[in-house]
């Protein structure tokens, strides 16, 4: 009888631990990404992962409200459109999408209008620019030149901008434009939802205000409507609209990784990388191999660790974690004992450091393949010995100092969670 009770308690505990519970991410904010069909402001549950994304977002807010002593400070909705079609219609469509997302959340969460902040980017030329930068199109340079001219003429008038847009559409007999229509424009039809939390305080009466400011040098101001935004609102026509919050790559701030080159060399290893924001990250790694065959005098032993700091570069850094070109500094320390039937080399402690450069390729929204090379120095004391029957003869002790490649990696990174997307790089039609 006692055995049955103990079994029931054990099974119940395991079931409780295995139930997925949404957690409040670091930074006290939750994010979700919603996609729209061409020319539509209707939320389609079957499009991309809209149904699962919205359900997870709503469930997480409800969970936080019940379990954590805090409440939403505001919910920011950033919407926009892709760049094909009429600019005025796209501008209106951008706001309609923001209003549609707000209506959905109000229906599910019963939040007042004053909690929502709506922002419009209009036609998302910035997002298209980032997609082209991250692509492998052979004529990428020509496209970026035209896009730079279009974004530079954003405040000069629609006629000049439309003329440059026609030039882009005719580039390489229209093949470039048709490729972007198929592969890039769907990625621009996106809305970003960011819910920020604060500690619970007495409720304040709702207010309605309009804030206007610039997001970056040369960009047109974003108009944010805090509070009620009528469904018939027609925002002022203007140029480029920005306003993507930093770290829109979802909840992914951590990556687990393993160097495949070390694995091939029979040196098991594991690493951890943590995103600090603005493209910076810190990481650590550990390797441990302890193989031996005393009868054949084979020893393959090494263990040690590394610390590193990285900076990722590129226009997509704020959109996609742990991807793109990167450079950094690293420190390493290790001990080893290598012998393959002949002279052996044993080091009690070696240390070094250097400069690394690499590129991290996005394979999937939760997978990266990172290529890196490190140049630096490695120094330490070692002992040389020779096997003789059942014992080992010490030969000499020396110091080694090496300057050159001290680190190489082809690492597989896994980003836990479901908030990281592969190529959701920028905007939203």
From TrEMBL:
Entry-linked InterPro entries: DUF3575, OmpA-like_sf
Gene3D superfamilies hit by this protein: OmpA-like domain (3.30.1330.60)
Domain of life of the native organism: Bacteria
Protein name: DUF3575 domain-containing protein
Organism: Phocaeicola sartorii
